[in-house]
Model the fold of this input.
Amino acid sequence: MKYRPWGQLSWLVKRTALTWSLINSYSMEMRSIAAHNALCDIGDLVETFTLNIASPASRFSARHAALKEENRKLLNTGKHQTNIYDVELFSSDAVIVGLIQDIIARGTKNIILDISCMPKRFFFPFLKFLIKAASVENLIAAYAVPQGYHGGMLAEDHSPLQSLPLFGQTSFDDNIDLAVIGVGFVPLGIASLLDTYKNRAVPVELLFPFPPGPPFYQRNWRFIEEIRHTLANEGSDPRRIHAVDLSTAFEHIEALCADGAKRAAFAPYGPKPISLAMALYAIAHDCPVYYTQPRVYHPEYSQGINKINGQANINAYALRLNGHKFY
Done:
């Protein structure tokens, strides 16, 4: 067991006695501004690098714009410098790489990456560059917990399953010993991955967020039931991991992969902290990561922000402090 500091954002940041640059993604979800406003209240925010990501036009576009405007009015402008990047959801790999390279070149040596509302096709490559950047001495990941999720379909019109930018080739990797899937709400397009590895007799391991509490528990089990028929090579019972416990999720992945002796392919469909654990392990061991990026998100994808003692519930994970890597 390794000591990896994590807890509420205000608790962790105050103990570093540092000032920070924030990388975040602005969206229709209220939690997209939670870490930003909390850091403004603490007074340790020097600058922000905010992605304004445009999804393809849909029947929800007008509602998305209205919700984003409501969030803009709730932003704490503070005294920090603000940098906004207008980008497309399906920007090319080259554009995504150019973005993070520019941010690293312009930012301070202390970075907080807010993954709360940042699409995986952005936060996975961003994290890879931040982890490998020698100029980044202190790196924290932040995740704001919503009050709840929309009860119906959260996303739709997904792209074909493919590797995330900088995390594998277009075709499925042949040199794989096991597949690790983060259990979420909807297994969009995952059948192609499972069918491929089923034919190759590759075992599949499931990371199950627990305890999620009703009604999320039922939705997670429905996810498993929808893919059960393709799990002829299912390795074991789902591993139950708290939805926000990054360190334990990472340790489960290490155990499944025998500390690197087995090469894994990842499919991050579950909660962002468990996806973050997959990203960190994949970066360290050069593993492929596959995902189906939705083109359309429901406007009420999530509602509000969960509270602890009246304060926004924003988890923060120390990935590097004073040059020391925890993962």
Q: What stands out?
A: The first strand starts at residue 6 and ends at 8. The mean pLDDT is 89.
